[in-house]
Amino acid sequence: MLFRCNILALVGGGPDPQYPINKVMIWDDHQSRCIGELSFRSEVRAVRLRRDRIIVVLEQKIFVYNFADLKVLHQIETIANPKGLCAVSQMSGSLVLVCPGLQKGQVRVEHYGSKRTKFIMAHDSRIACFALTQDGRFLATASTKGTLVRIFNTFDGTLLQEVCGCCNRLFVSSFPFHQKFGIVARLYCDRETSDALLF
Question: Do residue 98 and residue 171 come from a single domain?
Answer without folding.
Answer: yes
